[in-house]
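for ur thesis appendix - UPF0145 protein ACIGXA_30275. copy paste whatever u need, i formatted it the way the template wanted (i think)
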Amino acid sequence: MGIDDFGGGQSDQSDVLVVTTNEAPGYRVEKVIGEVFGLTVRSRHIGSQIGAGLKSMIGGELKGLTKTLVQTRNQAMERLVEQAQARGANAVLMMRFDVTEAADVGTEVCAYGTAVVLVRV
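the 3d part is after this line
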């Protein structure tokens, strides 16, 4: 497994800058569009659940579940960027993730932030 299996984030080719900060150095906010979010819900795979249950008895990282969560977060972020672009934004400030259990059948991951139009200063 490579580095991308256990980490994520925005690609270099994205037209929308996504940051967790309130501002982006070298830019000023020209227009605030508002909140945007990307949401996905993933069900648990029975095989990974059994493997995770066994692994939890002896300890250690649950690599299968880690990989699934990375994929889920990346999908939520892709959807966030799509929403921002569709509303005319070129950036999302204050991006955050929220992860919750969805009715005991899966995990809900929501990426959210404030869509804005930035200009270079």
